[in-house]
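Student: Send me a single protein entry containing the residue sequence and its fold in token form, directly below this note:

Tutor:
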Amino acid sequence: MVTNDLTIASPLQTARARGRVRGRLILLGPAFVAAVAYVDPGNFATNSTAGARYGYLLVWVVVAANLAAMLVQTLTAKLGLATGRSLPELCREHLPRPVNRVMWVQAELVAMATDLAEVIGGAVALYLLFGIPLLAGGLIVGAAAFAVLALRARGFRAFEIAIAVLLGVIVLAFAVNLLSARPDVSAAAGGLLPRMQGTDSMMLAAGILGATVMPHVIYVHSALTPNRIPAADETERRIVAKGLRTDVLLALSAAGAVNLAMLLVAASTFHGSGIPGTDTLEGVHAGLAGSLGAVAALGFAVALLLSGLASTSVGTYAGEVIMQGFLRRRVPLVVRRLVTLVPALLVLAVGVDPTRALVLSQVVLSFGIPFALIPVVAFTRRRDLMGSLVNRPATTAVASVITALVVALNLFLLWQLVA
């Protein structure tokens, strides 16, 4: 834009003028906030259980789920950039009122199931590290999330950087454990062939899917990208969109590597070993200590704690996005935190097996995926909403196939549970 012969730099031009590296880094961040939810304690439970019970059988599920997540989060980020609104806001504007209310109710249930996994996982980690009782640990994790959320008051970059650092430590911990476990490369490659072994493996596959393609971060990611780096024109808009794709590729690759490492470590260390209890988080921790040493067990517990802390902060933020978008209402952060925290504390108080609760929470999450996926695909294919960032026909086709497969899997699981 030119005024009185003086060129006023756009926000993107200002960011890129700081240097080539800093200019690119400014476009990264939202996907890392989303990615930490892809390595939440639910992933620890489902991936470790899958590896311990079935060895390398479900490697293909982890890989396929992560590829699907990359596409989903790319569409989600693009949706926020193109429309300037979050997915819940778009649902409120374009869907009938009764449908919007149903969407809100299921989204709240998804947020509760998410917090269930995150708080329980963090509580288990505190028990493993310090012997703190589970209920007290759950309260500590719930309260500690406020410290991470408080960083948002200092701007979006502080919050994003904190989450990215926590994700980096989790990646490092599992990289060390993977090197110690030395999985069978040929057997892991064989696990890329899609196959199942009965209904139990199907349940675990749905749990892995629910723990990987997370409904609540679809809502969160769409709220992080609007107006983050305002584009002055169509050229800048495409540059920002390219940066968001890179953001998703880097963040989800890191998350996918962690998920795969979880399964490979459990498969190579526990499957067929006769070590008892390796389908529980406590058993995995004890098994790692006995098989790979104290450092591996410590890395597992620390990663689990950081995962619970980071992902529960993102989950609370998701609750804000959900209520503000679907209902256009805000509630105090303390109230929002308590609404999703209470179910997790009740589970811990009554003594439900933590790992079992985690796996079941991921199955619940998998049923919430279609409610987020279908609107994302429907909105991103509309040129009147997306403009030049509208999906290509092939992109819409692939996303539609993924959505159809997820819905079909959920219907099958529902039938199996009822039968």
Residues 27-269+282-418 form a domain with the Amino acid/polyamine transporter I fold (CATH 1.20.1740.10).
